[in-house]
C-alpha cells in the first residue's frame, strides 16, 4: 500500500456499499432498479455514512446472469438508463463526498458481444475465434467436450457450435471465456478501464479475479475436489485447476499499471475465491490489486473461535504483503448474513453483532445493500427464480435470487416504495413493513440506525494506520479485542456473560445492567 504523508490512501480504510442495481431503487417505474433510482437515493447513502459505492454491472447485457454477461462494457443497458445518467450519478455522488466504483468482468463476455458474434462467424482458426477458448471435441467425431470441466452454474463448461467446435464457459453458456494469452484481450480491457477512469470512476471491482488464467493444455480436473454450490460459500480447493493459476497475477499487474497512471488513488478490489488468506494475499502484492475481498467471515460459522481464527489468519496473511484486509459479510452471491446465522430474530441479532465485529476491524469493509436493514434471504416461489443456476442445475439448486430481492423503502405493502410499478422484478415479501427505511429511520433500535451509528463512530475512533488488533482475555464463546479507539466484545454463546468494565459506545442489541446478552456485540471506549 502506498502511504502518503497524510496516512494510507482512502480505499485502505473505506466502507464501501455494494449496490445491486436491479434491486436498490427504481427510478423509471418499470419494476427494476436503475441508475436514476440510485441517484435519487444518494442522500440515503450519505446519511448512512459510507465512503464509496460499488455498483454491480449496469452495462449492455442480455441479462443471462444478472448483467455479468456483458455485451458492451462501455455502455449502459437501457434497463438501467444511459451514459448521461451515469455521468449525472457520479457528479452527484462526488458532490456528496461518495466515491464511485464499478464492476469489470474480464473472465468472459456475453455471447452477444460483437467479438463472440464475429468469432462464431469467423470459423475455425480465425483471428476472431482466438479471442475465446475454442477447442475440438474428444471422441471419434468430436462429440464429447474437450475436457471434463463443469460450469459453476451446473452442466458442462463447454458448448458445441454449429461447425462442431466447442467453446469454454466457466459460467453460463451465454458467458464465453476470453483467452487472456491473446494480447488483444488485455489491450481491450485496458481500453475499458480507461473509458471509465476518464469518466471519473474511483475504482473497480474485478469479477472472477482468480479465473482468467487457464492451465496449459486444459487438462481434466479431479471432480472429487469440487464442492456443490449448495454447500455454501466453500472455497475451491487448491487442486481445482480451473482457478487461481499463477498466470493470473500478470493480468492484475496490467490493471494496476493503468490505475496508477491516473491521479487520485484509483483502486481495484478483486473477487478471488481462493482456499485461504495466504493465497488471497498474492492478489494484493504491491504491484497487483489494491484490495481483495476477504471471504473468511462469510465462510465462518457463527462462533467466537471461528471468527477469531478468520480474523487472526487474515490479518496475518495481509500484513505479510503490506495490504489491508477487506472485510465482507455478504454480497449478491451468498446467503444474507441473517439467514446464514439461523434466520429470523436470532439470525438478525447475530448479523447485527457480526456487523459490529466487521466494522471495527482494521482495513476496508463492504456492506451489501439491504444488510443495513437486517434483511433475510427470501424464500421465493419457483416461478420467480431467475438465477441461471436454477435452470442449469436441473432445478436442484435454487441459486442466488433469495439475497437479491429489492430493498423496501416505505409503506406497508409490496413493492414498499422500491418502484412505482405494481410489482418489483423479484417479488417482495408482504411482511417487510417494519423493515422499510422509513420505518427504521424512526426506530432507535433499528438495524439501520445501528449501522449509521457504527459508521459514524468508526470514522471517529478508527486508527487508519493500524493493521492488527490486540486480543484480550475473553470467557468461553466470547471474543474480545482492541481495535483503534474501541474494545470490541462479542458474546456468541447462548447465555449472558458479565460485561467488562468500560463506557459502552454502541451495542448491537438491547443491553442489561452489567451483562452482555447472548448473540450480542458491544463497542466500549478503549
Ligand atoms: C462473480 C459474480 C457473480 C457472477 C459470476 C460470473 O462471481 O459475483 O454474480 O455470476 O462472477 O460473472
Can you offer a commentary on this structure?
By secondary structure, the chain is of the alpha/beta class. It folds into three domains: 370 residues, Glycosidases (TIM Barrel, Alpha-Beta Barrel); 55 residues, Oligo-1,6-glucosidase, Domain 2 (Oligo-1,6-glucosidase, domain 2, Alpha-Beta Complex); 57 residues, Sandwich (Immunoglobulin-like), CATH 2.60.40. Helix 6 packs parallel to helix 7 and helix 12 packs parallel to helix 15. The longest helix has 17 residues. The two termini are 27 Å apart. 51% of the residues are buried. The model has no long low-confidence stretch (mean pLDDT 96). The protein binds alpha-D-glucopyranose (GLC).
